[in-house]
Design goal:
CATH superfamily of the largest domain: Glycogen Phosphorylase B
Structural class: alpha/beta
Strand order of the largest sheet: 3-2-1-4-5-6-7
Bound molecules: uridine-diphosphate-N-acetylglucosamine
CATH architecture of the largest domain: 3-Layer(aba) Sandwich
Radius of gyration: 20 Å
Low-confidence stretches: none
Order of helices and strands: EHEHEHEHEHEHEHHEHHEHEHEHEHEHH
Helix content: 40-55%
Distance between the termini: 13 Å
Largest sheet: 7 strands, parallel
Number of domains: 2
Number of strands: 13
């Protein structure tokens, strides 16, 4: 019996772990242990995803909470180390690019446990993003690198990672999306929110580069207020974004069509995104979900670690300025592309990873 230990901590980890947990749980020769670092802890940021994605209660919850990068990463390392030593896993799986990912990978690698990185090889080339540092370091520490797309393989090869460690398995986010889509369609979130399919926009913004600077956030909110003349703009707020908007006194007046909302669960968000005329985001996963669904997406960033979404044609990078964002949004509004055509984004990524983990 092999022990595979998965470490997750933040919202974008949960949809990457869920499909793999389902496959590993069915495997007779594997014991799958889940550790939640507690990087995200609000019910809306964490527990609601467990319910939507049917993730079992984690065996360990480290309860680290928020803090500076050093505090958070260090706290996760200190609390994870004794668990890794007690469990002596045959493999530690880490997901994506958040602080929990790099912290767990460092602990495991130094204890001599092999690390598998799910969603390896993505690169934005922007070293000011904490996630880029997390991605590069985690990949360097990993002995199994599970990549979502060919550009990721090329990035890893260019960094000198031996080809034998790199496994192109496809995009595991899409496994979760396909699993949840029938449920999301039945939920009819547009109807529940009183908006007509393909006549509204959905927005998510939470990157420090967009929300921590008052001038940038003011430009973004002004753009959304202007866009809301075209149709309702639904904006579920990440806690960081809500706090900044309050601090900077933004969005309080509330232009008619701009709706500030609480963070949404996975299925409700998917249901809204699937029916949208346009999505504006700075998230990584949302760029991929819109690509798969053929929904036009504007990414308010200067770079993306997911260039395949831009090449595919649904996603476009736009500067975080009103003068750039509004015309781009009006042009992209309702211009859907064909859904579901990217190589290996097919719902089979978890199965392919499991075959490599336990042949
Ligand atoms: C983290 C990830 C980011 C990912 C994002 C998804 C890192 C470096 N960043 O960013 O890559 O895209 O998650 O959401 O790991 N907060 C709450 N409740 C929570 C969680 C956070 O109120 O449950 C607030 C706290 O004030 C906290 C702030 O949000 O300080 C930021 O949280 P943190 O986990 O540090 O980073 P995110 O911005 O969520």
């Amino acid at each position: 019996m092999k022990t595979v230990l998965s470490v997750m901590g933040a919202r974008p980890n949960f949809m990457k772990l869920a499909p793999l947990d389902r496959v590993l749980r069915d495997h007779r020769d594997i014991r799958h242990v889940i550790v939640h670092t507690g990087q995200h802890y609000d019910v809306a940021m964490s527990q609601s995803f467990f319910q939507d994605l049917a993730i079992p209660q984690p065996q360990y919850d480290l309860g680290v909470g928020s803090g500076s990068h050093a505090q958070q990463t260090g706290e996760i390392m200190q609390r994870f180390e004794p668990i890794a030593m007690a469990e002596r896993p045959d493999l530690v799986l880490v997901y994506g690019d958040v602080n929990s990912t790099v912290a767990a990978a460092l602990v495991a690698a130094k204890l001599g446990f092999p690390v598998g990185h799910v969603e390896a090889g993505l690169r934005s080339g922007d070293w000011t993003m904490p996630e880029e540092i997390n991605r590069v370091v985690t990949d360097r520490l990993s002995s199994l690198l599970f990549t979502p797309s060919r550009d990721a393989d090329e990035n890893l090869q260019a960094e000198g990672i031996p080809s034998g460690r790199i496994h192109l398995v496809g995009n595991i986010m899409i496994d979760s999306l396909l699993h949840a889509l029938p449920h999301a369609r039945r939920l009819d979130a547009p109807g529940r929110h009183g908006v007509r399919p393909r006549h509204y926009a959905v927005v998510t913004l939470h990157r420090p580069s967009n929300v921590d600077d008052p001038a940038t956030l003011a430009e973004l909110v002004a753009a959304l207020e202007e866009l809301s003349a075209k149709g309702p703009v639904l904006f579920p707020l990440h806690p960081r974004t809500r706090r900044r908007m309050e601090e900077f006194g933004l969005g309080a007046a509330g232009a008619n069509g701009l709706r500030l909302m609480e963070p949404l669960g996975y299925i409700e968000m998917l249901s809204l995104v699937a029916g949208a005329a346009l999505v504006i985001t700075d998230s990584g996963g949302v760029q991929e979900e819109t690509s798969y669904l053929g929904v036009p997406c504007l990414t308010a960033r200067s770079s993306t670690e997911r260039p395949v979404t831009v090449r595919y044609g649904t996603n476009r990078l736009v500067p975080s300025r009103r003068a750039a964002l509004v015309p781009a949004a009006l042009e992209a509004w309702g211009r859907h592309g064909p859904p579901g055509k990217i190589e290996l984004w097919d719902g089979g990524a978890a199965r392919r990873i499991a075959q490599i983990v336990c042949p």
